[in-house]
Amino acid sequence: MFKILVVDDDPELIEAVKIRLEINNYKVITASNGIEAVDKVYKEMPDLVLLDAWLPKMNGWEVCRKIKEDTRFKAIKVIFLTARTKLSNKLIGIQILKADGYITKPFESEKLIATIKEVLKENVKEKNISCR
pTM of this prediction? Predict the structure, then answer.
């Protein structure tokens, strides 16, 4: 079972995403700010982080940078889930910070699940399990 860290400062969004992910057999942990997110990455070692770009205490760009620059976390995938719709923001997330995906809010839950499955495909062989 894949473990996903959902990071957003909107508790209603966190709960909605958590329910959708759990229905699809993912284990979900949550964080409501950037510092808490980094702490949970160290403690929980999730397979994937769904990350808002604008968070209190430390923004999502910096959280992504910390994850991607630390070799201990090379297997952790990051997908931005953000209201930042400008192409320049997407380019920062994907090209500069090396995020594995970028989804803009509002989003369709089917697209979210499909993107997660696609991003986690690389990890399937390592865990010797199938994405559901």
Answer: 0.87
Structure tokens at 2: 């894949």
CB atoms within 10 A of CB 8: 23
pLDDT by residue for the chain (132 residues), tens digit each? Answer: 999 999 999 999 999 999 999 999 999 999 999 999 999 999 999 999 999 999 999 999 999 999 999 999 999 999 999 876 676 666 666 666 688 988 888 889 999 999 999 999 876 655 554 444
Q: 3-127, what's its fold? A: Rossmann fold (3.40.50)
Alpha helices (runs of H) in the chain, residue ranges in sequence order: 11-23, 34-44, 60-69, 87-91, 109-127
